[in-house]
């Protein structure tokens, strides 16, 4: 990057964060301006700033659909971007995804149980079930590894997470193949989407997202130490167990919030850290905010694409990300040395 | 609402009357012997050395047969017998449920039920009524599953496309060939004709435009009346339907952003997906005239037979009388 030759590093990183903030703001504007209902920029502007006199249908589209959806996209983007970076930092595995601790599978099973056992179908209740399910799955994974020699060690946790996920997915299949209502709820939930969610969902997940972000901030310095290896981190006076538990709690809360709000959305947690690292380096003080901002841009950008390609209907953000994310990740993986963590 | 309850109660009485009255001749018919054959809507002729006494199949078809007194031994569908509104008024004791979600059929249980034939149906893929021969019948997961199940007993397939009146005729022909008594059919047809005339009269006097829809988190799918046999039948009787603008066969799909463009005065709401309260929480849909009027009624997709249709037409006529044009 030639710019780095001229601009001192101390100014370069804030500059990049500023540019990423601008990019995220553009994504927010695009999310307000574009949709499957083709409104002109003037109509959107008038509705936003003269909402009192705006026609009822435009008001409903902007304030009832696009603004709540954009807010949800921002929450999901921040949560998944930060969770992905935390996950890769803790596991020192460039292919780690926040879903690896069984969080998605736990949330999915809880949604299905909510419908099947308790007959809960309302969106706000589904959120509560998803969050609780994600937390239980994560605690179960932690509990399994806590019996081992090194508690909360990332690799055994990833293995336990895969095993727990497989078990929970099997239970989910068992229920949805026998009950139509559960299948319907699961089918809608399992494709990550920002569409059709009432505003209550964003409010319901916000506390979990905020708590997760707070823990992520507290975890920043420990993550930098841990990236030097467990022994080195101990040598630097880091309490590895505490650092791991705080990190795990942050990842779980953030992923649970995002998953509860939009269903499982893939690739964001995986790709964002790889985009952020070459821009701001491996230090988590810069990496975490860069990941949050890139997460917003990626989720909202993909959602806008999905709204524009479906005619009068739409394509869900989860599908857009899966389709775009695959080749994109291959390109990233080929260009950067993945071992350089 | 009271009218609706009364209509449902009256229908239930009618149904019980029908089935109990017809039990004796059916029992006699079921014992009649001799070779049996039926050419289904895919042109396939099923021949057996006796009239099939044990019938299994897709719930939306077996329900229609049950209304004519042909009691199925097993049923599969995309809902359980308990929750499928089409089974209302049918005595379900002795019917083994062999699948409660789409394509999940317990082959072992179905084999144990020892059916003589399995009834299913198939939906066209376009307005012209094209049937895709590479696809399995409706209700089967894939061709492999259907092939496996066809080994248990031959499959008789009815086509759920085109004019609903023709589909009803075919269902009735199948029921008659399976031993439904002429008396049962005649009684049902009489009630159907009366309900049809009533609906026709109501529709002629009503300015209400009906919108039949299904909704979920992805948006609202509005049915195209000409592509659904039953809705087409009601439309032919003079019921006015809102025509969705989005392209596509059977459904016109609106994203939630576009849901404010849905017209019509009275909603016929699919029994699965979002229900009234969830629909009204969507700000765009809430701006539509139909949503504001609160004129919501169930669209239970009743079977295409005289009994089910007479009952639903009577209901629909009641819905229309209750509703006012608002758009």
TrEMBL record, chain A:
InterPro entries from the UniProt entry? ABC_BtuC-like, ABC_transptr_permease_BtuC
The record's section on Pfam families has: FecCD
Where, subcellularly, is it found? Answer: Cell membrane
Q: Its Gene Ontology molecular function terms?
A: transmembrane transporter activity
Q: Which GO terms describe its biological process?
A: siderophore-iron import into cell
Annotated membrane topology is:
Multi-pass membrane protein
Task: Provide the transmembrane region boundaries.
Answer: 66-87, 99-118, 124-146, 158-178, 198-220, 241-266, 286-305, 317-334
Q: Is Transport found in the keyword set?
A: yes
Q: Which UniProt keywords apply?
A: Cell membrane, Membrane, Transmembrane, Transmembrane helix, Transport
Q: What are the annotated GO cellular component locations?
A: plasma membrane
| PANTHER family reported in the protein's UniProt record | FE(3+) DICITRATE TRANSPORT SYSTEM PERMEASE PROTEIN FECC-RELATED (PTHR30472:SF1), FERRIC ENTEROBACTIN TRANSPORT SYSTEM PERMEASE PROTEIN (PTHR30472)
Q: Which family is this protein grouped under?
A: Belongs to the binding-protein-dependent transport system permease family. FecCD subfamily.
What protein name is recorded for this chain?
Iron ABC transporter permease
Provide the species name: Paractinoplanes tereljensis
